[in-house]
Amino acid sequence: MIDKMVKKTLLTAVLACCAMSAQAAKTEMYQAHLTAVNADKIGSSPVGDATFKVEGDKLIVHIKMKNTPPGIMHWEHFHGYPNGDNATCVTAAQDKNGDGFVDLIETGAVSGTTMVPFDDAPHKMNIPTDAYPHADKNGSYEYTKVVPLSALEKKFGETFKGGKIDLDKRVIYVHGVPDNLTLPATVAGEVGHYTTSTTLPIACGKIERVK
Predict the structure, then answer these.
(1) Across 19-45, average pLDDT
(2) Nearest 5°: phi and psi at 4?
């Protein structure tokens, strides 16, 4: 009888240990430090940090920015290549038309395409919305969202023909300047009824896995 109890206790302990190990194996951490894009033209130098924690079926996203143009909405997304190539952030070298701005279209050369929005429902991947964070009067904002990972992966695979999230191959962009900031006609990147003021990149960071 005692032997059976001991065996049962040991079995319970082993199963619990295996369950904890499986849960731990599903936990991954990623981070990005965002630095300014187009700072000399927009009158501020946005900086910030983003973390991405994969925990079971949850993707926990936290983004904290400061020095952004104050009092307006800021689009934020991760960009990348559907084929899994490694994306990088833009530099002044991507200003191919020489107008002094690196616009949304010009980011494609090194950053790929817009993929997942960090709005009120990232798993729906609805890019053009008004559901993004707004900066306060000091140009700061903080964003936290718990995203259902399986729903995001399903939508991502449908949108990008079987593509994978692959966070460490992506970059994160923050966008948006005031409508009263005069932009050259050569600045491109209108999305639906949203103008280039909304889509102009103002910060970028490479997402890296935390080992």
Answers:
(1) 83
(2) -65, -40
